[in-house]
TrEMBL record:
Family membership: Belongs to the FAD-binding monooxygenase family.
Region described as Disordered: 496-525
Purpose of the protein: Catalyzes a Baeyer-Villiger oxidation reaction, i.e. the insertion of an oxygen atom into a carbon-carbon bond adjacent to a carbonyl, which converts ketones to esters or lactones using NADPH and/or NADH as an electron donor. Thus, can convert bicyclo[3.2.0]hept-2-en-6-one into the oxidative lactone products 2-oxabicyclo[3.3.0]oct-6-en-3-one and 3-oxabicyclo[3.3.0]oct-6-en-2-one. Is also able to catalyze the sulfoxidation of methyl phenyl sulfide (thioanisole).
Protein name: Baeyer-Villiger monooxygenase
Keyword Oxidoreductase recorded: yes
Length: 525
């Protein structure tokens, strides 16, 4: 259980835990389950919202669903034999996450409506001071599981403040606003937009889609899972595991085309074009919707209803981004003007500039955002130089272009578990600090492999790339390779920090040691 300690200011008491987990989506709940399985119960999960679920709680827009098959988009330790469809909707995934919180008895650890305002490393006591919206606590280790799809990105459009109608982001859907008969501008053509468009097209008066870059859209092989299949999965659990294994294996075999042989994706492009040609008969509209970059360079989207919706008479496609708003008129970069009643932004999230990084202050007094000013990087996607006993789930270069992120999350949970075991073995008050040289070496290897991938050579600009054009998002290999790379913590990649003793206090130390606030013990000593 959490301890109560007396703080240095005015003798006040504060709470101390061994581990503080930030966020309660797949990453945060997965971390909580793994902690309990490791016998660790002295932890809290800090969640800024009023319910668990992360991005699957926040994204409740019409048509929201996963583009990874249900049996692969779930924890290996918590299979769900009762998925209703091969690709699950938002409400089913949210129910699954709520069930995880109950089944594994996590509720007592979860603190809802508790937003983390600041995390500061205390170099003398080797712990993190965490300021939240509900109070302050300290933790030996912080596991940040806020995720890259947690903070919506809305472009700063000139004149947007003058718009008299309704404006909202897809991740903050206003369910009280009635779209029936309205003139609506949909901004963006990403994964959210292609699900939203077919749903709202049926009820709006007119829909104008602002498209900067057309996406590649593949058919979606979605169907209801029969009662017989679900019965079989319940009675014979190995059938669920087999189904998951097949789905995983197919995607592992596909990775080579994305990472080493992008030219082999031509056949996939032809399938995507046939998907479009079946629904889009107008040559001019086809021209607008045909990508000019290699498939896979941007996220491949799945839909059977997107193109048919765009062909409807109440839909216009403007092949240009939104440039300006003049009162109730939205103006595209090509000069097209459209009168609308509502603007919906499907413009993605802060992926390569995660806002949580502004709230993490490391051992040198600088923020993680400052440390990452030239691009995000972390040792094995988990730990950052200058931030001892802090790790992230779904960190830099852990994203996937064709498989389930739950596989990557579980690999990072293995790394987290071994990290905590190493701290136990080292004994006493201790911290592990990723060596700058180790982080740099890891990032160099990742970026070298990235050069051949479709994400870097496919001829597009995507949200995988940061402001400097560096791919800090995607993992350039298989999930099997990542699992092997994160199975164990290599202590040679870390410095072991301990609090300074009486003798050290009077002994001059190097600048590096002074910044870390503690004497360093070489790894393996």
């Amino acid at each position: 259980m959490a301890e109560r300690e007396r703080g240095p200011e005015q003798g006040r008491e504060h709470e101390h835990v061994r581990v503080a987990v930030i966020g309660s989506g797949f990453g945060g709940l997965g971390a909580a389950v793994r902690l309990r399985r490791e016998g660790i119960t002295d932890f809290v999960v800090l969640e800024r919202a009023a319910a668990v679920g992360g991005t699957w709680r926040d994204n409740s827009y019409p048509g929201c669903a996963c583009d990874v098959p249900s049996h692969l988009y779930s924890f290996s330790f918590a299979p769900n034999p009762d998925w209703p469809r091969t690709f699950s909707g938002q409400e089913h995934i949210q129910e699954y996450l709520e069930r995880i919180a109950d089944t594994f008895r996590l509720r007592s650890h979860i603190r809802l409506d508790t937003e983390v305002k600041l995390m500061r490393w205390d170099a003398e006591r080797l712990r993190w001071e965490i300021e939240t919206s509900t109070g302050t606590l300290t933790a030996d280790v912080v596991v940040s599981a806020t995720g890259p799809l947690s903070d919506p990105k809305t472009p700063d459009v000139p004149g947007i403040d003058t718009f008299p109608g309704k404006i909202f982001h897809s991740a903050r859907w206003d369910h009280d606003y009635d779209l029936r008969g309205k003139r609506v501008a949909m901004i963006g053509t990403g994964a959210s937009a292609i699900q939203i468009v077919p749903e709202i097209q049926k009820r709006v008066g007119r829909l104008t889609l602002f498209q900067r870059t057309p996406p590649w859209v593949m058919p979606r092989a979605d169907r209801a899972i029969s009662g017989a299949e679900r019965w079989l999965h319940r009675q014979l659990p190995f059938t669920t595991q087999a189904r998951r294994g097949i789905l995983w294996g197919i995607r592992e075999l596909q990775v080579q085309a994305f990472t080493k042989r992008p030219n082999e994706l031509g056949l996939v492009e032809r399938i995507a074009k046939r998907n479009m040609y079946r629904a889009i008969k107008d040559p001019a509209l086809r021209a607008k919707l045909t990508p000019t970059y290699r498939i896979g360079c941007k996220r491949i989207l799945l839909s059977n209803t997107y193109y048919p919706a765009l062909a409807r008479p109440n839909v216009d496609v403007v092949a240009s981004g939104l440039a300006e708003v003049r009162g109730g008129t939205v103006v595209a970069a090509d000069g097209t003007e459209t009168e609308v009643d509502a603007i919906i932004f499907g413009t993605g999230f802060h992926v390569t500039d995660m806002p949580i990084a502004e709230r993490v202050i490391g051992d040198g007094g600088h923020t993680l955002m400052e440390s990452w000013k030239d691009g995000m990087n972390a040792l094995r996607g988990a730990t950052a130089a200058g931030f001892p006993n802090w790790m992230t789930i779904i960190g830099p270069n852990t994203g996937l272009g064709n498989s389930s992120m739950i596989l990557m999350i579980e690999s990072q949970l293995n790394y987290m578990a071994d990290y905590l075991r190493q701290l136990d073995v080292l004994g006493g008050r201790v911290a592990l600090a990723a060596r700058e040289s180790a982080v740099s070496a890891w990032n160099t290897r990742v970026q070298e492999r990235m050069k051949r991938t479709v994400w870097n050579t496919g001829g597009c600009t995507s949200w995988y790339l940061d402001a400097n054009g560096v791919n800090t998002t995607v993992w350039p290999g298989t999930t099997t390779e990542f699992r092997a790379a994160t199975r164990r913590v290599d202590l040679s990649e870390y410095e072991v920090l301990r609090p300074p003793g009486p003798s050290e206090a009077a002994t001059p130390v190097s600048r590096t040691e002074k910044e870390s606030g503690g004497a360093k013990v070489e790894a393996g000593a």
